[in-house]
Amino acid sequence: MTQQTNSSSDSDFARIIVSYRIDPSIGVKPEIIAEAIRTEQTIEFPFDLAPTWIQNNVVGRIENIDGQVVTIGYPIGVTGGGLGQFLNVLWGNVSLLNGVRIIDLQLPAEFLADFRGPRFGVAGLRSIFNAPTRPLLCTALKPMGLSPEELGATAVTLARAGFDMIKDDHGLSSQPWAPWAQRVKTIARMVTEVDADSPHHCVYMPALNVPADQLLDAAHQAKEWGAGALLVLPGLAGMDSMRVLADDPELNLPIMSHPSFLGSTVVNPQQGIDHGIVFGTLMRLAGADISIFPNYGGRFSFSQEECETVAQACAASLGEIATIFPSPGGGMTLDRVPEMIKVYGTDVTLLIGGALHRGDLFSNARQLVEAVAPL
Amino acid sequence: MTQQTNSSSDSDFARIIVSYRIDPSIGVKPEIIAEAIRTEQTIEFPFDLAPTWIQNNVVGRIENIDGQVVTIGYPIGVTGGGLGQFLNVLWGNVSLLNGVRIIDLQLPAEFLADFRGPRFGVAGLRSIFNAPTRPLLCTALKPMGLSPEELGATAVTLARAGFDMIKDDHGLSSQPWAPWAQRVKTIARMVTEVDADSPHHCVYMPALNVPADQLLDAAHQAKEWGAGALLVLPGLAGMDSMRVLADDPELNLPIMSHPSFLGSTVVNPQQGIDHGIVFGTLMRLAGADISIFPNYGGRFSFSQEECETVAQACAASLGEIATIFPSPGGGMTLDRVPEMIKVYGTDVTLLIGGALHRGDLFSNARQLVEAVAPL
Description:
The structure is a homodimer.
Chain A: E1 15-22, H1 30-40, H2 52-57, E2 61-66, E3 69-75, H3 83-91, E4 100-106, H4 109-112, H5 121-128, E5 136-141, H6 148-161, E6 165-168, H7 180-196, E7 203-205, H8 215-225, E8 230-232, H9 234-237, H10 239-247, E9 255-257, H11 264-267, E10 272-273, H12 275-285, E11 290-294, H13 304-315, E12 325-329, H14 337-344, E13 349-351, H15 361-372
Parallel strand pairs in A: 4-10, 5-6, 5-13, 6-7, 8-9, 9-11, 11-12
Antiparallel strand pairs in A: 1-3, 1-4, 2-3
Helix pairs in contact in A: 6-7, 6-15, 12-13
C-alpha cells in the first residue's frame, strides 16, 4: 500500500511516531530499551552490521527520550504492505517485552492517505438513523441457547421499541441451538418486516463470528438476507479482515467492532497499548464505524479516565479518516444513562443488553428510547 | 463445526475444562469471579433470567475452586462455529478483566475431532528433511532494506551451508525496497536452484505478512513459485486464518507460526494465558507445524521454565493432533546450541538469525549445520 522512493537521506520522508513508556522496575535504562526497540521493530539485525543507508532509512530513529518515555520515528516505508505490517511495526515483537507500553501514536498524512477508514463514521450513521444529535441505541440478542425464532422475537420487540441497531451477542456463532445461516436469515427477515412498517429505521447486525474463509461471503450473504450492519471481532478475525469488509464497495454496511480477545493488550498498566489507541485510533484505521469497549463501573476493569481516552481517540483528528462512535457497554443499566451522556457527550452509541430483560423488555427498551430522543 | 444434540441433562456431553488463576490483589473472592466468568463467556446475561435448560446446558459449570484457582467446564456446543468461537469462549471477554490468567486447558476428544491440526508435525517435517533425529535448522533473511536479489544471495549462501528452512524475516511484507511478489518469486527461484543441485533438501519460507484478502492467494502463488513452507503471523492474521491455510489440501505446505503481537497475552504473570497454552496447544489447534517463541536469555523476557512449558505443550498428547516443533528464537547464538539441546531435546527447530552475520555467514552457518548433524 505505502509507496516511497528509495532515498539516501534520513530526513525527507514521513515517519510514524510512537512513544513507549518504560516501566522503571524492569531495571534497564530507557536509552538501552530505545536502541533495542528501534531495531527490533524494523531490521531485527545487529545495527552495526547493517549498511549505512539501511541504518539511516529503515531502522527507527530515536526522536526523544524524556524520563521513562522513549519516542521512536519509523520511516513509513517500513510499514509497506498494509495494516498488518503497520501493526507489526507498532507492536509485533515489542509485545513480547515486559514493562513497555505504547502511550502515544502520531500518524503522518502520507501514511493515513492509504487508509479509507470507516465507510460511514459518525456523520454517516447519523444520516442512516435520522438522528442528527442524539446518542444511537444498540442492544444485543441474548442469551445464547435460544432458537433463531426466539432470538428473532426478542429482536422484534426491541425494533418496535425504537432501537437503532439490534446486534447478535458476539458469542453467537454457529451453535447447535441456532446455526449461523438459520439464525441470521430468520432474524434479518423478522427485523426487516418490522422496519418496513415503522417510521423509525432499525437494522439487524449479525455477528460475523465465523470461520476465516467464510467471513467475506457471510457478510455478503447477511446483507442479501436484510442485515443492515455487521458486528466484527477484530481481535479474533484480525484487524485487517475488518478493514477488508469496510473497504468492500459492494458490501457498503456499517461495522461495529467488538473487543473480544483484545483485553490483555490494554489492561496491564505497565505493558501493552493505551486504551484510546487500540479502541479509537486502530479501530478507525481498520474501518470500524462504532467501537465497543467495556464501560467503567460495569463488569470490567477500565477506569473512567481510560474510557474517556477511547472517546477522545474516536473523535480526534486523524487525517481524512472519519470520526466514529465510541460504544461503552458491559453491564450498562438504564439509570446510568444521564451520567454516561455527561461523560461521553451525545456522540456515543449506548449499548445495553441483559439489563433490559429484568422486568418487561418492551417497556424497559421504550424507556431508554424516550430518554435519549430529546438529546 | 461442533455438532451436539440439544439435551436437558447437564451431564451427558463433553466439556472444555479451563482453569483460571485469580490474582488475590484484585480483592474479589474466587467464588464471585467464577460465577462471573461462567456466564460472561457464554450467555452474557443475568443467570437467574435464563431458562433452566440454558442454565444447565449452555452456561459454564464451576467444576472446582481450589484456593485462587477456579475451574470452569464449558459444554462443547457453546464453541460451535469453529476455532474463533472456541477462542472467544476461552478468552474473549475475560481478556478484559485484570487479575485473571488461564493456567490449564483440557480439551475433550469430541472437541478435538473437529480439528485437523498441523498437516505435517514433527514426523512429517522429519520426513521432508530426511532428519530422523536431529534438530531442524531455520534462519531468517534480513535485514529489511535489502533488495530481492540481495536477500536471495543470502538465502543461497544459507542453503549451500545446509540449513533446512530459510524464512523471510517476519517484518518483510511489501516494502518499497523489496515488494512482496518480486521478493518471493526471486528468492524462491534462487533457493530452488540451489536445492536442485544439493544432496540436502532446503526450502524457502516466505512471510505471509500480506493484506487479509490476499492471504490465501499469496500462499498458493508462493507455492507455485517454489516456496516449500509458509511463515504465518496468527496474532495479526487471526488464528483461524492460519487454520485455513493448514487445512487447504491443495496448498499442502508446512507452516511456521510467528508470535508477533501476541506478547501481551502471555507476559503479564497476573493476567493472560500461560505460555504453553498459547504457543503450544493453540498453535497446534490452529495448524502450525513449528511454533516460534522467544527463547529465555535472549532479547525477550520469557523464563526458562516458561519456555519449557511451550516445548512440553508442543509434545503433549492432544487427541489425534500431531506433535509440533517448538522453535525458540530471538537473539540466539552458536555457542548456546549445546545448552538448548539439553533443555529442549532434539525435537526442536533452532532459529538463528542475525548472529550468523557476525563474521563469515557461510562458515558460521556451516558450523551450526555440522554441530547438529550428529544429533
